[in-house]
Design a protein that fits this description.
The protein is of the alpha+beta class and 534 residues long. 68% of the residues lie in helices and 7% in strands. The chain has 14 helices and seven strands. The strands form two sheets. A five-stranded mixed beta sheet has the order 2-4-5-7-6. The chain has a two-stranded antiparallel sheet with strand order 1-3. Helix 2 packs parallel to helix 4 and helix 10 packs across helix 12. It is elongated, with a radius of gyration of 59 Å. The N terminus and C terminus are likely disordered.
């Protein structure tokens, strides 16, 4: 075969996948094993046939031939003794010999069925014995007892010649049976030797086939996979410039090529990620600077802006007290507007500062008994609760690792809202529940107030969003925003149950342990979404 003919064949084999190699190998192995199995089955069947012929036919036939000879000899001994003495006791071996002859003849006929030569020998024995019995045995046995039988002496020479013929027939029969048994034994030994050789060859072939299979798996699968794994580990170790070289069957080579393509893509992504990281570092620096500015703003709002606002509020209130009623009605109205606006601005700034401090200044994580926090909150709200005639009940509340100040603000806003937004002419009924929900605690605050329409269940958590005018219900519109920020800071969520129609039901979850982001004091963030229901 020329080199040009070998090359297409090599290319054809190189396109074989692991599955195809395994199928071809399995088919060849099964075919070889089937051939070996058929050969072994034939050897075993042949061994069984010869062994059965030797055990069930040849050996028993020789044994019965010997018994037949013994039976005929017993007959001759009995007839000879009876003929010489006339005593009846000598006829007993004769009669027993006849019975034994009949039995042995029947057994030999059955055992030698199909063996023409052996059956011919049996017939020769039967004929010779029949002639001796007819001429000598039966006439002598029929003679009266008590005296020697004259016929025995008269036919002594004839009887000897007839019985010699019987002996000759018996010897020929036994010789043939011995030869046949020896041949069967030799055949058995030969087939056993062949069986041993064949099964040894089968064992050697199975061992060789197993070795070939393992070697094929090692070369075709294990070694390519080991190389691929070594290349992948090199890339995983940080050597992204390490090229992955495919080996083995076509599908493993495709896998190696795909992994190398993934490596190249990962290399491009890493370059892009490094560039993004640099940009993120720059943005983090900007955010840190912005947070510092926000801290400065909070300081200014809590000090510098508060002082002018207090002056405006104080002087407008002084103007109202001193000149109230001395000017016209429109001037009094303007003064009232100024006082109300200054007071509202004061409240708004204070609420906004409290909102910005959630998670920044109030971050003392410790074990908090929510029942104690709730009792303190109810005590702080006792005046409003008594004026409204509210009845507040609660289930047993757990202890959590949280900030106690924030937990108090959470209960204060939720219960304060439930009392504030009550139905006219109806005393508020508020109930608080707590139950374990997987890894979190699930709480509900349910009231019988005016409720929240389903389309506003998200809007109420947006900062400064109000559902009612300030004349109908007071407030800055920041309470529920603070609740949402507190709950999310403690690893939970808060929602309004849209299916509850007999008032409002707030559902929120809290983690038993604070999330990692809450343990370290976070940098102040921009004002998040959330608002008080107003």
């Amino acid at each position: 075969m020329t080199g040009d003919e070998k090359q297409p064949r090599a290319r054809g084999l190189s396109t074989w996948t692991t599955r195809r190699w395994l199928r071809v190998g399995a088919a060849a192995s099964l075919a070889l094993l089937a051939l070996l199995g058929v050969t072994g089955a034939w050897i075993l069947s042949r061994t069984e046939t010869i062994s059965k012929d030797l055990v069930d036919s040849r050996s028993p036939a020789l044994t019965q031939a010997v018994r037949l000879e013994s039976a005929i000899l017993n007959q001759e001994t009995g007839i000879r003794g009876y003929g010489l003495t006339g005593q009846p006791d000598f006829l007993t071996p004769y009669r027993e010999g006849l019975a034994q002859q009949k039995s042995s003849t029947a057994q030999l006929t059955r055992l030698l069925d199909g063996d023409r030569a052996a059956l011919d020998d049996l017939r020769s024995v039967i004929l010779a014995t029949g002639r001796w019995q007819e001429r000598i045995a039966r006439p002598v046995a029929d003679a009266p007892p008590g005296a020697p039988v004259p016929l025995a002496a008269q036919r002594a020479a004839e009887g000897k010649a007839a019985f010699d013929g019987v002996r000759t027939a018996l010897a020929a029969q036994q010789e043939r049976l011995r030869v046949q048994r020896a041949e069967a034994r030799d055949d058995l030994m030969s087939i056993l030797a062949i069986r041993n050789v064949v099964f040894s060859a089968i064992a050697v072939l199975i061992a060789v086939l197993t070795a070939l299979i393992f070697e094929g798996l090692r070369r075709g699968i294990n070694t390519p996979l080991d190389r691929l794994g070594a290349d992948a580990r090199a890339v995983a170790g940080g050597d992204f410039d390490h090229t992955i070289t495919p080996h083995g069957p076509a599908d493993l080579r495709r896998l190696g090529a795909e992994i190398d393509f993934m490596r190249r893509r990962l290399l491009r992504e890493l370059a892009f990620s490094e560039e993004a990281r640099l940009r993120l570092d720059a943005q983090a620096a900007d955010l840190q600077r912005s947070n510092a500015e926000l801290e400065q703003f909070a300081y200014v709002a809590s000090h510098d802006l508060q002082e002018p606002l207090r002056k405006v509020s104080s002087f407008t209130q002084l103007l109202q007290r001193r000149y109230g009623g001395q000017l016209d009605a429109r001037a009094d109205q303007y003064i009232d507007f100024a006082v109300d606006g200054a007071n509202r601005m004061q409240i708004l700034i204070n609420d906004l500062l409290d909102f910005s401090r959630v998670g920044r200044l109030h971050n003392a994580q410790q074990s908090v008994d929510l029942e104690e926090v709730l009792e303190r909150t109810l005590s702080a709200l006792s005046v409003g609760i008594e004026e409204a005639g509210a009845a507040i009940t609660h289930d047993p509340l757990p202890s959590l690792v949280a900030d106690p100040t924030q937990m108090g603000m959470l209960w204060q806003n939720l219960i304060g809202n439930a009392v504030k937004f009550r139905r006219p002419g109806q005393e508020p009924r508020i109930h608080i529940t707590a139950a374990r929900d997987g890894d979190l605690w699930r709480f509900t605050v349910t009231d019988n107030g005016i409720g929240i329409a389903p389309e506003y269940t998200e809007k109420v958590f947006v900062i400064f969003q109000r559902l009612h005018t300030k004349d109908a219900y007071s407030g800055s519109g920041i309470g529920l925003a603070m609740c949402k920020k507190i709950v999310e800071f403690h690893g939970g969520t808060i929602t309004v149950d849209p299916d509850y129609r007999d008032g409002a039901r707030f559902v929120f979850t809290l983690a038993p342990e604070p999330p990692e982001a809450a343990v370290a004091a976070p940098a102040p963030a921009a004002v998040a979404a959330g608002a008080e229901r107003a």
